[in-house]
């Protein structure tokens, strides 16, 4: 039997009229401090801010308020302020979020708070971690959420009595993922030193610009001396007459380096476009630095070998996204390429 929309709405209203309940997004933050802080849009003289939550489809609800809280991870205090504002709720799609505000609506937004002055309290001292939900937006009218789509809330700030920092608890997903690395063998000890040459480094995938970044660091090499970093697709692990270490790469590429006064050097970072086909590939790297005092054989102090794995882009984690602009009349704004948003507690 199909339930008409009007009846569904009535049932939802009846179900929530008997008491007050809360749901927090992201859910882990109901009892724990999240991992970031967000000052947007509370410092702006004028602003438009949307936030889409992709984790609330579990059950239909009738939302009656929105609560936020201070960021416990920052020591910055914030003075009270009064904002001339209005607030909307609407169905939306986290997966299809765009920088154009109107394109993020599914259906017609409901203005749950009419334009008015809303007082935000001073947040000057910590009251624990997590902080209490003492930044309240109680709705003038409820929003019926059937939970068939994701949820969007939008605040428009027409004026703000204070434009100083006001940092609230927020969730930030990861923009980067670092591929694992493994040390292969041991470098040789340069003349005049007591420890072997060391090589470390990795490949990083970055979601925000769709890139792979490669970077390596050499330590303990001959001081102020030229050298080369070799990069290849295999580890021959082969002794070479005259070299003080086994060759740990079958080189296809090389990059020049010069050590500093302590024998250190950095090679890179080198940025290349992200390639899904390269994910999981193994790169083998080794460095050699000129060392005339090494003794018999080739005058090259070799590092350990290094195996780098090319990583994939970081996975989308908690499905929260913000879109914001520093103007109440803006039609589009900025958004993150990874999950980011204010920890939000909804009254229903």
The outline comes out as elongated
Major sheet: 6 strands, antiparallel
Query: What is the end-to-end distance?
Result: 27 Å
From the 3D structure, determine the CATH topology of the largest domain: Jelly Rolls
- Which architecture of the largest domain per CATH? Sandwich
Secondary structure class reads mainly beta
Strand order of the largest sheet: 6-5-8-3-20-21
**Total beta strands:** 23
Number of domain units: 2
Number of helices: 1
Mean pLDDT: 92
Radius of gyration, whole Å: 28 Å
| Strand proportion | 35-45%
Q: Tell me, what is the CATH class of the largest domain?
A: Mainly Beta
Low-confidence stretches: 1-18
Percent of residues in helices comes to under 10%
Along the chain, the helix and strand elements come as HEEEEEEEEEEEEEEEEEEEEEEE
At a glance:
This protein has 348 residues and is mainly β. The strands form five sheets. It has a six-stranded antiparallel sheet with strand order 6-5-8-3-20-21, with no helix packed on it. It has one helix spanning 5-17; strands spanning 22-25, 36-38, 47-53, 61-68, 81-92, 106-120, 135-145, 150-160, 168-172, 176-178, 181-184, 198-206, 211-219, 226-232, 253-258, 265-273, 282-290, 300-302, 305-309, 320-325, 334-335, 340-342, 344-347.
């Amino acid at each position: 039997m199909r339930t008409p929309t009007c009846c569904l709405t009535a049932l939802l209203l009846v179900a929530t009229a008997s008491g007050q309940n809360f749901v927090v997004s992201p859910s882990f933050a109901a009892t724990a401090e999240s991992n970031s802080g967000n000052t947007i849009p509370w410092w702006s003289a004028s602003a438009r801010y949307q936030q889409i939550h992709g984790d609330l489809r579990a059950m239909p609800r009738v939302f009656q308020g929105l609560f936020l809280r201070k960021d416990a991870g920052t020591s910055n205090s914030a003075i009270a302020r009064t904002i001339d504002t209005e607030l909307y709720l609407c169905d939306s799609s986290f997966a299809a979020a765009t920088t154009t505000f109107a394109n993020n609506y599914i259906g017609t937004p409901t203005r749950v708070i009419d334009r008015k002055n809303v007082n935000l309290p001073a947040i000057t001292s910590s009251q624990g971690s997590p902080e209490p939900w003492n930044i309240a937006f109680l709705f003038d009218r409820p929003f019926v959420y059937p939970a068939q789509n994701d949820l969007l809330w939008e605040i428009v700030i027409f004026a703000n009595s204070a434009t100083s920092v006001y940092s609230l608890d927020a969730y930030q997903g990861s923009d980067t993922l670092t591929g694992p690395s493994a040390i292969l063998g041991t470098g040789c000890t340069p003349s005049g030193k007591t420890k072997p040459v060391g090589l470390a480094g990795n490949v990083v995938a970055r979601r925000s610009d769709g890139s792979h970044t490669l970077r390596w660091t050499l330590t303990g090499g001959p001081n102020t001396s030229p050298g080369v970093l070799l990069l290849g697709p295999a580890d021959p692990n082969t002794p070479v007459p005259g070299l003080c270490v086994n060759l740990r790469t079958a080189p296809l590429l090389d990059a020049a380096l010069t050590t500093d006064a302590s024998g250190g050097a950095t090679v890179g970072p080198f940025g290349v476009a992200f390639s899904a086909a390269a994910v999981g590939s193994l790169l083998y790297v080794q460095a050699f630095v000129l060392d005339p005092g090494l003794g018999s054989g080739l005058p090259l102090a070799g590092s350990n070998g290094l195996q780098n794995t090319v990583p994939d882009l970081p996975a989308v984690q908690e499905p929260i996204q913000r879109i914001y602009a520093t103007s109440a009349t803006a039609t589009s704004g900025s958004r993150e390429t990874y999950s980011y948003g204010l920890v939000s507690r909804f009254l229903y």
